[in-house]
Amino acid sequence: MTKSDDKKSNKIRVAVLYGGRSAEHEVSLLSAANVIQYLDPAQFEVVPMGIDKQGNWFLGKDVFLKSLENKKVPKLYDSMNTWFTPEWIGKPVDQTFLPEKINSSHESSAFDVVFPAVHGTLCEDGALQGLLELAGVPYVGCGVLSSAIGMDKDISKRLVSQVGIAFAPYVVIKQEQWKNNPAHFSKHIQEKLSYPVFVKPVNTGSSIGITKVKTEDQLSSAIEEAFQFDVKVIVEKALDIFELEVAVLESLESNGEPIVSVVGEIKPRHEFYSYDAKYIDENGAELIIPAQIPSDIQEKARQMAKEIFSVLECEGMARVDLFLDKKTQQIYFNEINTIPGFTKISMYPKLMQASGIDYTALLSHLIHLAMKKHGQKRQL
Question: Which CATH superfamily is domain 170-237 in?
């Protein structure tokens, strides 16, 4: 083995996972492209790992390039072209099977750690994390419990309420309940919340399936739209607020306090911070770092984000989204994102960079943290 081969073999092989079966498939490709671009080549060797919309898994850089070109992981019908399946996770790979797909100098496995650059249902809600736990594979980010809690906009609010954190009033509707008695919920929403309201699927991100409803006659179609993405919906009172975001990063130090970023502010140029405003329209929103709010309110927001990160048992990283009431200056919890976006315009890496941790250092921190925590679990 040459010196260069030996040096290469000592790099940590990072499987950057992208795609997935959720409605946030396309966003994931943008996040993965940025993660791959900014991983430190001196420390890491990248293994792109894609999941198409049918749930098939693929390894290799050529599929990733095709995915970016097509704006989705290409569907491959021939089972012989499936380069990776969930059953193989954590198992030794026969290198003769993947001679062109992976240029690997490792003899025992295709990768050392998984970096999930995926979002939404089955990716961010604990399902993927459970699979990786079963396989005994190190992975970046929150575990099964906090992923599942964080994805559910209803359950996460119930838990933070236990420590006195406020949120906008809302009503939960399950699909069968709505079908059986829509008039009941229409009346209940009018009485409890009044208009305008936001109708949201409980378990989606990137503002997918969300509608702002200004009058009662718009409610039914908005709820039906939300039920296209989940069997549980929340209808939340629309407040007159500033939208704030705070990035939280778990410390590498044992018993170290979480690292909390400066506060960022989002000023949507659309009706609200919709999917189009986030990803389609380059001028859809103005991202202000640090937020243009008083320093004492910034500090309250940072402390609230830190507390929410702890209460929801988060690990690795999370972006905490808050509302600041324009009249009362009350801070409300909106939601938490346990795999925040990593695109070039995403707030999480921008907030961390503004707080002294650049993109490359952030990725290295997360990977080393994942491997450290995995080592601790293996001792159990």
Answer: ATP-grasp fold, A domain (3.30.1490.20)
